[in-house]
């Protein structure tokens, strides 16, 4: 359920598109449906998106003669899982896609997507999940070797599961459970990074609707392998001088950012971001009167990092709306979306 509130034309559009992409399952390795949807959205806005060989989406927003070309990244892939074993009792053992913590995924509804395109509902549970039966329930350390998908089908052995068309290698997508509260909080799995996807779509719409011509040439890249570390290791146009990742801003102990702000990252686990880019982002935020915080992320890597590791000779930066409970049931706020949107407009002017 999403409570309908009015936040202004572009913020409303961002929230609508965020909800739409959250509704499309796209764990790393199975992003084609979400990419196809985004292709349609960009075409409706008047752009010509290109699906890359890797399966991501590249869009030239122009202008053709813009100076200092920049590639603005968000990632469309999310955490998820894959069937690793069909157990003798008809339950499924999983292997994670990205950093889905089994503690956070316990008792979550999920969908198994077969190679033929069929989808089956299930729940990710601790093996022997009945507290009234399992005396070790509280003491069992949660892990993928101790947990399983209980299918909502009449199955009790491997043959029953095979008859459904389910096999090892099938994708498992978890329920996002998206809600927007009357107080403006946005709650969902996979705000990392579909909230940023919505923000970039809002920026693309703003350029067209307001007939804005930025001085810089702007590309959008929606990558599809960020959660496993190589999303933006390719697909960098030859003329690009800078990469800006728009990803979740970290919120937690020892950090300044809140869910109502835009975060500017000075350093993550792979090292510092370009000093001049970070400084320019700070100045743009001040100019736009965007509420921001500068932070160091202790356990984090971005698409911009991946591009540099791959050898691209570019400057790099990272911003994002503040998101709490990352890789769990995440929460942000409409104010954080607004401030990220304003910073993007000011920085890309």
Can you tell me about this structure?
The strands form three sheets. Strands 1, 2, 3, 12, 13, 14, 15, 16, 17 and 18 form a ten-stranded mixed sheet that branches. A six-stranded antiparallel sheet has the order 5-4-9-6-7-8. A three-stranded antiparallel sheet has the order 10-11-19. It contains eight helices and 19 strands. Helix 5 crosses helix 8 (334-347) and helix 6 crosses helix 8. The two termini are 36 Å apart. The relative contact order is 0.19. It is globular. It has 349 residues and is α+β, with helices and mostly antiparallel strands. A hairpin with a 5-residue loop joins strand 6 (108-113) and strand 7 (119-126).
Topology at a glance:
Elements: H1 9-22, H2 32-45, E1 50-51, E2 57-62, E3 67-75, E4 80-86, E5 92-97, H3 102-105, E6 108-113, E7 119-126, E8 147-151, H4 158-163, E9 171-174, E10 179-180, E11 185-188, H5 191-209, E12 216-223, E13 242-246, E14 249-250, E15 262-268, E16 271-272, H6 275-287, E17 292-296, H7 303-309, E18 315-323, E19 330-333, H8 334-347
Parallel strand pairs: 3-12, 3-13, 13-18, 14-18, 15-17
Antiparallel strand pairs: 1-2, 2-12, 4-5, 4-9, 6-7, 6-9, 7-8, 10-11, 11-19, 15-16, 15-18
């Amino acid at each position: 359920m999403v409570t309908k509130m009015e936040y202004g034309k572009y913020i409303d559009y961002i929230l609508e598109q965020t909800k739409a992409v959250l509704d499309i399952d796209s764990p790393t390795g199975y992003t084609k449906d979400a990419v196809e949807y985004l292709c349609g959205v960009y075409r409706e806005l008047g752009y010509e998106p290109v699906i890359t060989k890797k399966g991501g989406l590249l869009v030239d927003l122009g202008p053709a003669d813009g100076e200092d070309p920049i590639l603005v990244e968000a990632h469309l892939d999310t955490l998820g899982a894959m069937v690793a074993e069909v157990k003798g009792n008809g339950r499924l053992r999983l292997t994670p896609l990205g950093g889905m913590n089994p503690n956070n995924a316990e008792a979550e509804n999920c969908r198994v997507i077969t190679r033929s395109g069929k989808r089956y509902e299930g729940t990710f549970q601790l093996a022997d999940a009945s507290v009234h039966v399992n005396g070790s329930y509280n003491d069992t350390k949660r892990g993928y070797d101790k947990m399983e998908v209980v299918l909502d089908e009449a199955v009790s052995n491997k043959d029953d599961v095979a008859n459904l068309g389910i096999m090892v290698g099938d994708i498992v997508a978890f329920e996002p459970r998206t809600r927007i509260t009357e107080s403006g909080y946005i709650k969902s799995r996979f705000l990392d990074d579909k909230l940023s996807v919505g923000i970039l779509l809002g920026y693309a719409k703003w350029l067209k609707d307001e007939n804005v011509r930025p001085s810089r040439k702007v590309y959008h890249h929606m990558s599809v392998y960020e959660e496993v570390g190589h999303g933006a290791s390719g697909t960098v146009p030859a003329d690009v001088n800078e990469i800006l990742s728009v990803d979740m801003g970290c919120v937690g102990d020892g950090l300044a950012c809140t869910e109502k702000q835009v975060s500017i990252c000075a350093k993550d686990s792979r090292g510092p971001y370009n000093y001049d880019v970070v400084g320019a982002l700070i100045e743009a935020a001040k100019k736009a009167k965007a509420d921001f915080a500068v932070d160091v992320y202790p356990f984090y890597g971005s698409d911009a990092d991946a591009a540099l590791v791959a050898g691209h000779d570019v400057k790099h930066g990272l911003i994002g709306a503040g998101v709490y409970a990352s890789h769990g049931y995440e929460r942000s706020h409409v104010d954080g979306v607004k401030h990220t949107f304003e910073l993007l407009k000011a920085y890309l002017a």
